[in-house]
Amino acid sequence: MANRVDDDGRPMRTGTWVTASAHIITAVIGSGVLSLAWAIAQLGWVAGPATLIIFSLITLFTSTLLADAYRHPDPVTGQRNYTYMDAVRAHLGGLKVRFCGVAQYSNLVGVTVGYTITASISMEMVRGSKCFHGKDKCHASTTLDMVVFGCIQLILCQVPNFHNLSRLSILAAVMSLTYSLIGLGLSIVKVASGTKLNEGGETRTTSATVSEAQRLWRIFQAIGDIAFAYAYSTVLIEIQDTLKSSPAENKTMKRASLVGISTTTIFYLLCGCVGYAAFGEDAPGDLLSGTGFNHPVWLLNVANVCVAIHLIGAYQVFAQPIFSFVETSCRQRWPEVKFVSTDHQITIPFLGGMSFHVNWFRVVWRSAYVAVTTVLAMVLPFFNVFLGLIGAVSFWPLTVYFPIEMYIARAKIPKFSVSWMCLQALSFVCLLISLIAAAGSVEGLVQSLKTYHPFKNEA
Ligand SMILES: *[C@@H]1O[C@H](CO)[C@@H](O)[C@H](O)[C@H]1NC(C)=O
C-alpha cells in the first residue's frame, strides 16, 4: 500500500496482459460476433473467412505499431502519453490531432449509444421470451429496457477510472465467450440435425429475390461489418495506459493484442462459418434474436442475459476514455474552479473504513452523459446502421492511418523507400475498404429511414 502513485504522480497502474486481453476481448467481440454469420453468408465460403483473417492480420499489425506509440520518442524509455490523441500530438502534431480526436471520440460516443440499443434488445428478448418464441405476438418496446440499462450505467460510471474496471472487464469477456459458445452450439446442433430452415413458415428474402444491386450493397456492408468487428484501436492506448511499467508496456500490450485478437478470430471464424452452415443464405443479422434460433428458450435467455452483461461492461470500456478526456480538459481549463478540481474524501464506516474520493463535477457530468446517450438510444432506434457509418468512417484513420503515420515518423522511414511504399499501399487499400463500407452503410441508413418510428425498435 506504500506506493500508490506512479513515477508521474498518477495512480499506480497494475494491469497485466490478462487484464489487457480481457479489455480487448470485451471491446472487440462486441455483439458483432452474432452478425458474422450474416456477413459470411454475403461473401461466401472462400471470401468470407479470407476477409476475416486478412482483417485480423491487419489489425494485429497496426496494433503492434500503435503499442509502440504509447511512449515517445522511444517505445520503452520515452515519456508516456495517456490517450490516442496525445500520442498523435507527440508524433505528428498539427491538424491531425484534431482529426484524430473527432474520429476517436465520435466513434466512442457512437458505440456507447449503439450498445444501449443492442443491450436493450437482448434484455427485451429475455423479458418477452414467451411472446417471441410462442404463438402470441406482444407489443414490443425496448424503452423500459433502455431505462434499466441506463440506471445500471449511472451507478457503474461512478467508477473513477479505467484502472478500476478490470474485474468488470474480465466478467464481460467471459460473458462474451459464453454467448458466442451458445450461438456456436446451437448452430452445430442445427447443422447436425439438418432442421429445415424457416420453420416458422415466415417468408424471408432469399437470395433469389435479391437484386444484383442489393447483393452488391450487402457485400459492401458485410466487408464493413468484418472490418469493424476488430475495431479496438480506438481504446488501445487507453488500455495500454492501465498496464504496469515492468515488463515494458509495449511488450505486454503486443502479447495482449495477440491473445485478444487470436481468441476473437477463432470465435469469429467458428461462429461465422458454423452459423452460415446452419442458416445458409438466410443467416439472420443476429443469431440470438428471434429471427435466428427459436428454442430451447431457456438457453437463448441465458445467452441474451450474457449479451446484456457483456454490453454493460463494454459500455464502460468505451465510456471511460470519454469521461477522462472531458474531465482532464476541464481541469486544465478551469483549474481554479473548486467544483471541477476538488476531490472530497468520503469514508464509509461499515465497509471497514473504506474511503474513496468523490468529485461532484464527475458525478454530475457522467450522469448527464449516461442520460443523454440513453435518450438518444430511445429516439434513434435505427442508430446501429448509423453506427456502421461511424465505424466505416473511423476505421481507416484510427486503425490504419495513424498507426502507420506514427510509425513512419518514429522510425524515420524515408519517403518512397520500399517499406514506405508498402505501408502507404496498405493504408490506401484500407481507405478504399472504408469508403466502400461507408457507401454500404449510407444505403442501409436510407433504407432504415424509410421505416422510421421513434421509440420503437424493430429488433
Ligand atoms: C506525450 O509525449 C510527449 C513526448 O515525450 C510529451 O512531450 C508530452 O508531454 C506527452 N503528453 C502527455 C499528455 O503526457
From TrEMBL:
Where the record annotates domain Amino acid transporter transmembrane, the positions are 13-446
Q: Where in or outside the cell?
A: Endomembrane system
> What is the protein name for this chain?
Amino acid transporter transmembrane domain-containing protein
As for membrane topology, the entry says:
Multi-pass membrane protein
Q: Which UniProt keywords apply?
A: Amino-acid transport, Auxin signaling pathway, Membrane, Symport, Transmembrane, Transmembrane helix, Transport
Molecular function in Gene Ontology? symporter activity
Taxonomic lineage per UniProt? Eukaryota, Viridiplantae, Streptophyta, Embryophyta, Tracheophyta
Q: Name one GO biological process term.
A: auxin-activated signaling pathway
Q: What function does the entry list? A: Carrier protein involved in proton-driven auxin influx. Mediates the formation of auxin gradient from developing leaves (site of auxin biosynthesis) to tips by contributing to the loading of auxin in vascular tissues and facilitating acropetal (base to tip) auxin transport within inner tissues of the root apex, and basipetal (tip to base) auxin transport within outer tissues of the root apex. May be involved in lateral roots and nodules formation.
Q: Where mainly found? A: membrane
Gene Ontology cellular component? endomembrane system
Record Pfam families? Aa_trans
Report the transmembrane regions from the record: 20-41, 47-70, 168-189, 258-278, 298-318, 363-383, 389-408, 420-442
Q: Which InterPro entries match?
A: AA_transpt_TM (IPR013057)
Q: Which family does it belong to?
A: Belongs to the amino acid/polyamine transporter 2 family. Amino acid/auxin permease (AAAP) (TC 2.A.18.1) subfamily.
